[in-house]
From TrEMBL:
Protein name as it appears in the record: Acetoacetyl-CoA reductase
Gene assigned in the entry: phbB
SMART domains: PKS_KR
InterPro entries associated with the record: Acetoacetyl-CoA_reductase (IPR011283), KR_dom (IPR057326), NAD(P)-bd_dom_sf (IPR036291), Sc_DH/Rdtase_CS (IPR020904), SDR (IPR050259), SDR_fam (IPR002347)
Gene3D superfamilies per the UniProt record, alphabetical: NAD(P)-binding Rossmann-like Domain
The organism's place on the tree of life at top rank: Bacteria
Keywords, comma-separated and alphabetical: Oxidoreductase
Similarity comment: Belongs to the short-chain dehydrogenases/reductases (SDR) family.
Presence of keyword Transferase: no
Cited SUPFAM superfamilies: NAD(P)-binding Rossmann-fold domains
GO molecular function: acetoacetyl-CoA reductase activity
Domain Ketoreductase as annotated: residue spans: 3-178
Pfam family, one: adh_short_C2
EC number(s) given by UniProt: 1.1.1.36
Length: 240
């Protein structure tokens, strides 16, 4: 019987690649998304992967969304907390809304989703959770106090929840991607991007599939001894 996997923000970019890689491995995958219906419909039509629209920053919406997924597919056994946004600005120009949106969508979502799947995972004695952090949560980044704080929070959240899940067959790990060629990175000005690529030892941006490969590894049934870890997938950038 295939395991039920939910990927937040699974209809575009890294999340879409994760969904496809999990489907290829035989998981019963559901892709969550927040608002871009056009992209979600195109993704679902092309891949045959069902989509579930709910705002991961809103606890009640997540609760209802997870209940619907459970009714239609069964309880979520594999959760990938991937949805994320940026609202970049230096702190003196950053609005409270820019701060809060990034904290709620990137970090609050991890609480919301984990809180809504953890009981069924504990009952089952099995669960796999992967949280998508960022190299910028490890090292910080100019113009991203909101994003770096949220992503850094994800790394602490991962280690705390890993300790709670360890005796119940639930592993919780993080992946810290470097710069990956998605819409999020395409919105970075070209001159800034050139400087970023110059600092990546392998000399190029990463591909979404290269993050998906790490997820497939961490969620496998026989990966039960890996928990509380952060896998850096960044072309070697974390060494500098
Ligand atoms: P994209 O912007 O390409 O895709 C983001 C996805 O998240 C979309 O599916 C979007 O849905 C969804 N989403 C955003 N807000 C919400 C919300 N409130 N509720 C539900 N879904 C939401 O992002 P990437 O693929 O580039 O990034 C994926 C993750 O990887 C993020 O957490 C990001 O921070 C992280 N990351 C990315 C890096 C990169 O270089 N790209 C580097 C390091 C980390 P919709 O289509 O409806 O908007």
């Amino acid at each position: 019987m295939s395991r039920v996997a939910l990927v937040s923000g699974g209809t575009r970019g890294i999340g879409a690649a994760i969904c496809l890689a999990l489907k290829k491995e035989g998981y019963d995958v559901v892709a969550n998304y927040g608002g871009n219906d056009e992209a979600a419909e195109a993704f679902s039509k092309e891949t045959g992967i069902p989509v579930a629209k709910f705002d991961v920053s809103d606890f009640e919406a997540v609760k209802a969304g997870i209940e619907k997924v459970a009714q239609e597919h069964g309880p979520v056994e594999v959760l990938v907390n991937n949805a994320g946004i940026t609202r970049d600005s230096t702190i003196q120009k950053m609005s409270a809304d820019q701060w809060q949106a990034v904290i709620d969508t990137n970090l609050g979502s991890c609480f919301n989703l984990c809180r809504c799947v953890i009981e069924s995972m504990r009952e089952k004695g099995f669960g796999r959770i992967v949280n998508i952090g960022s190299i910028n949560g490890q090292a910080g980044q100019y113009g991203q106090v909101n994003y770096a704080a949220a992503k850094s929070g994800i790394h602490g959240f991962t280690k705390a929840l890993a300790q709670e899940g360890a005796g119940k067959g639930i592993t919780v790990n993080a992946i810290a991607p470097g710069y990956i060629e998605t819409d999020m990175v395409r919105s970075v000005p070209e001159n800034v991007l050139e400087k970023i690529v110059a600092r990546i030892p392998v000399g190029r941006l990463g591909q979404a599939e290269e993050i998906a490969r790490g997820v497939v590894f961490l969620v496998a049934d026989d990966a039960g001894f890996i928990t509380g870890s952060t896998l850096s997938i960044n072309g070697g950038q974390h060494m500098y």
